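Field log, afternoon session.

UNIT: design team B
ACTIVITY: writing a sequence onto a fixed backbone
BACKBONE:
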């Protein structure tokens, strides 16, 4: 009479790392049911388990990319409406500079949102982004103005513009960031 048994388990190697093992055995008994022999073997399946985990991670990343692309596409459609209406309001408020400035800020925020959704869409399509120079002082000043209007007079925000960054320094930081991103994916 024969009975097959088996299972998976982890085994610590002599070097201290762990191995994923698959064990298979066949138990042989005589006619009285007494164990007479056992034949079996172990297979190190660590590499297969690691590859399966990498595949699951890749599939998760692909699903996140598809979800991101769908959300970004829908959000971009909404931003198109916001941007169009903000530009229309800006034209209608030609004689009211304060309200026209608010409409311009809404349009500017919608444009920044559209740029962000383009980056998300590029991620979803696995396209490379084309970096461009940005005037950080102008960008921060725009955010400060928007926050000042949103927060009202209850909070005082101060911003001191810095010097323009050297192009070589900007390129170095950009290359460092891209390298870090490449190691993550």
């Amino acid at each position: 009479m024969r009975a097959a048994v088996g299972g998976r388990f982890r085994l610590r190697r002599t070097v201290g790392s762990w191995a994923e093992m698959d064990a298979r055995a066949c138990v042989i008994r005589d006619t009285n049911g007494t164990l007479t022999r056992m034949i079996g073997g172990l297979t190190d399946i660590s590499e297969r388990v690691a590859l399966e985990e990498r595949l699951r991670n890749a599939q998760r990343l692909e699903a996140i990319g598809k979800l991101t692309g769908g959300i970004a596409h829908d959000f971009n459609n909404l931003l198109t409406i916001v941007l169009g209406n903000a530009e229309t309001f800006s034209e209608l408020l030609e004689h009211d500079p304060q309200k026209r400035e608010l409409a311009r800020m809404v349009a500017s925020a919608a444009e920044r949102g559209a740029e962000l959704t383009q980056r998300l869409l590029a991620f979803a399509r696995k396209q490379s982004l084309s970096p461009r120079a940005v005037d950080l002082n102008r960008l921060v000043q725009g955010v400060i103005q928007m926050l000042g209007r949103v927060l009202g007079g209850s909070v005082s925000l101060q911003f001191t513009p810095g010097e323009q960054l050297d192009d070589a320094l900007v390129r170095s930081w950009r290359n460092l960031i891209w390298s870090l991103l490449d190691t993550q994916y």
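LOG NOTE: The chain has four helices and three strands.
NEXT ACTIVITY: expression trials, pending approval
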